[in-house]
Amino acid sequence: MSAYHMANVHPKHTGLSRWIWILEGWGSSEKRPHIIIERKGGSPDMLMSIEEEPEIFGSGYDNISDTEMKPLKEWIILNKNLLLSYWYQHGQYRDTKSTLDALKRI
Q: Three-state DSSP class for 7?
């Protein structure tokens, strides 16, 4: 994944406790729509699916507590259509600025 195909989002813009990276899917080797979640203590970072019931997949899982997992899932569900629009590069949110401006906080 090239850094040119993703945007990092600071916790102050999401209401979450970790940095998030949103991605354009065509630049990803992983075909399942997802975001990247900062892994505390180092990499690899965690992949979390963009769907009605988001889940962590792939390597890098670091035993996120239920207390921290719940808002991550809620944030993805809250922003699901926007995140998918950015992933697939169609619809209103094809550019990074519009996408970042439209993200909702938890």
A: strand
